[in-house]
Design a protein that fits this description.
Elements: H1 4-25, H2 30-48, H3 58-82, H4 87-92, H5 95-107, H6 113-130, H7 139-162, H8 169-191, H9 200-228, H10 230-233, H11 239-251, H12 258-283
Helix pairs in contact: 1-9, 1-11, 2-3, 2-8, 2-9, 3-7, 3-8, 5-7, 6-12, 8-9
């Protein structure tokens, strides 16, 4: 198992593939896609970790599953499908800022100045990478993208506050995905967000989404949070939009301009600063 920082980086890179999969290979039904993603990841992880969470933990598990999966997945796919041009990715870059604020308010961990510098650099870098002139902005999409980032960040901080249930990480992560998957399925059925033909390409894309882009990375992400904290893990999510840009270059024949390349450099610099900032925070 990789170290926590490498695990966080791998997770963020894998999540960058989600944008490509969503726009190119999945049906345009955000709640359906979110539900299948959650249930697919849950099935994979619960097959690995066949443990039941103690009854005393179910209240917390429902909260964590709702924040980390139900709300996050649902709002994320609404944002991605309503915000063309990669605009949704900029809201994920707010995660490190929110992690600092939530960590301060909920965990009592006062951030150091270097941490704010690192997330500031990251925000500017991501903005340069994903924002393009004339990019469409949809109010519902903006609200959904922002809400998804708030949900995931708050879920990570609450995991730090409560710790992990007395089961393995595969089971702990799988049960959270199952909670969110059930919630999303009910919403999908209630609003009728399904329909149309599902081809073999869609089925294969759903399998990749559930296992490679959900089960494995969420296991790595939650383990990293438990080891070094959500505040130190969240900045690695800046690699997600960078990965999405690289995939656009490789698969969609999009050529990055000098501004976007500068943005990539700033994101990498922000991660280096964050590493130093996290060490300074520990000493403070």
């Amino acid at each position: 198992m990789p170290g926590p920082r490498l695990a966080a980086a791998i997770t963020a890179i894998l999540w960058g593939f989600t944008y490509l999969l969503t726009t190119d290979l999945l049906p345009h039904h955000p709640m359906l896609v979110a539900a299948v993603r959650a249930l697919g990841g849950a099935a994979f992880l619960l097959a690995l970790g066949r443990e039941a969470v103690p009854r005393a933990w179910w209240g917390r598990l429902i909260v964590l599953g709702t924040l980390n999966t139900g709300l996050f997945f649902g709002l994320f796919f609404v944002g991605v499908m309503r915000l063309p041009g990669g605009v949704a990715a900029i809201f994920q870059a707010l995660g490190p800022v929110l992690a600092l604020l939530f960590g301060w308010a909920i965990l009592g961990r006062r951030p150091v100045a270097l941490q704010f510098l690192s997330v500031g650099l990251g925000l500017v870098g991501v903005a340069l990478v994903v924002l393009r002139a004339g990019a469409a902005v949809d109010a519902i999409g903006v609200a959904a993208a922002l809400g998804s980032t708030v949900s995931l960040t708050l879920g990570g901080v609450m995991m730090n506050r409560w710790g992990r249930a007395p089961v393995g990480f595969a089971a702990f992560t799988g049960w959270q995905l199952l909670v969110g998957g059930v919630e999303l399925t009910l919403v999908t059925l209630a609003i009728g967000d399904y329909g149309g033909g599902i081809g073999m390409t869609n089925v294969l894309a759903f399998a990749v989404l559930g296992v490679v882009l959900t089960g494995i990375p969420f296991l790595l992400w939650f383990r990293a949070i438990s080891q070094i904290g959500a505040v130190n893990v969240m900045p690695y999510i800046l690699l997600t939009p960078v990965t999405a840009l690289i995939l656009d270059v490789l698969l969609h024949d999009i050529r990055p301009n000098a501004v976007q390349l500068l943005g990539v450099a700033l994101v990498m610099g922000a991660l280096i600063v964050n590493f130093s900032a996290s060490r300074a925070a520990v000493k403070a």
